[in-house]
Amino acid sequence: MSVHSGTPRGVSITCRNLAIDVETDTGTRRIVEGLDLHIDPLEFVCVLGGSGVGKTTVLRALGGLIPPAPGSVLEFDGQPVNGPSPKCVIVFQNYTGSLLPWRTVLANVELPLERTVRNKAERRERAMEALRLVDLDKRCTAHPAQLSGGMQQRVQIARALVMEPPVLLMDEPFGALDAMTRESLQDALLDIHRAAGTTIVFITHDIDEAAYLGSRQVVLAGSPSKVAFDFKSPLGTDREQIKTKSSAEYLTLRQQLYAAVRGEH
Ligand SMILES: Nc1ncnc2c1ncn2[C@@H]1O[C@H](COP(=O)(O)OP(=O)(O)OP(=O)(O)O)[C@@H](O)[C@H]1O
Ligand SMILES: [Mg+2]
């Protein structure tokens, strides 16, 4: 996808001694504690960890949707995150309810550009480009209810990509998709990361996906949770599904991640 709004604009993210509390029926519960993580502007960080460990909670805090507990540091480019930032777009886990049912697929993807791009033809062109990436350009006149769940998820992804945000936070965005679609979207996302210089934090349960996509892999563990393992990928930026996945570096990384997620590292 071409970059419309200038040169790389990734943002650094700093979590220092991050703690996150949520309110439950039985009182306040600490989900995350003592989480330290510094992400450089051009990193693509994949976050792994068991179900319920707190991955979505961390992503929501990064997106400014939950406040960090007192004593925590959470910053974008050194500025405290106090709420949702215009620099940041979130793709939620299996959350297709965010599409507007009365708008066509194309109009849903154009929506976030309506405030920033005044030229209607440009908006349309950019939205169509994003829809081509997720292979839904031919369904642009359909309404969300006429699409399958996986297709609706792809529209949500297109709507996030069209904004070319400095920070993209993605919560298992490809979880509901078939293997072929998933691989082509993985490659599209890598292209966008390279071209647009977006900082990406990407949650996945899939070790292969984390190893293939990430410039770094972070494993959360514990209760409350924090960073248990932090891997810097040995793979270069050029990745290709078959070639990369059969390389010795990839296979070693995959094995290390597998052990780390199972707590055997
Ligand atoms: N608003 C909330 N109220 C009560 N408990 C919550 C809330 N949000 C999260 N939790 C609890 O915090 C823990 C972490 O939840 P979270 O959704 O972050 O996990 P996760 O790592 O994303 O899991 P999964 O891989 O299944 O998506 C869970 O035990 C969950 O029940
Ligand atoms: Mg989750």
Describe the protein's architecture and organization.
With 265 residues, the protein is of the alpha/beta class. The longest helix is centred in the C-terminal third of the chain and has 18 residues, at 179-196. The chain folds into 2 domains: 8-87 and 165-265, 3-Layer(aba) Sandwich (Rossmann fold); 95-164, no CATH class. The protein has helices at residues 55-62, 105-110, 120-133, 149-161, 179-196, 207-213, 241-245, 248-261; strands spanning 13-24, 27-39, 44-48, 73-76, 79-80, 88-91, 167-171, 199-203, 216-222, 225-232. The N and C termini lie far apart (38 Å). α3 crosses α4 and α6 crosses α8 (248-261). The strands form 2 sheets. The protein has a 6-stranded mixed sheet, sandwiched between helices. A 4-stranded antiparallel sheet has the order 2-1-4-5, with helices on one face. Helices cover 32% and strands 25% of the residues. β9 (216-222) and β10 (225-232) form a beta hairpin. The mean pLDDT is 92.
Task: Jot down its keywords.
4-stranded antiparallel beta sheet; 8 helices; 6-stranded mixed beta sheet; globular; 265 residues; Rossmann fold; binds adenosine-5'-triphosphate; alpha/beta
Quick summary of this structure?
This protein is α/β, with parallel strands linked by helices and 265 residues long.
Q: SSE layout and pairings?
A:
Elements: E1 13-24, E2 27-39, E3 44-48, H1 55-62, E4 73-76, E5 79-80, E6 88-91, H2 105-110, H3 120-133, H4 149-161, E7 167-171, H5 179-196, E8 199-203, H6 207-213, E9 216-222, E10 225-232, H7 241-245, H8 248-261
Parallel strand pairs: 3-8, 3-9, 6-7, 7-8
Antiparallel strand pairs: 1-2, 1-4, 4-5, 9-10
Bound molecules: adenosine-5'-triphosphate and magnesium ion (MG).
Adenosine-5'-triphosphate (ATP) binds at residues 22, 24, 31, 49, 51-57, 93.
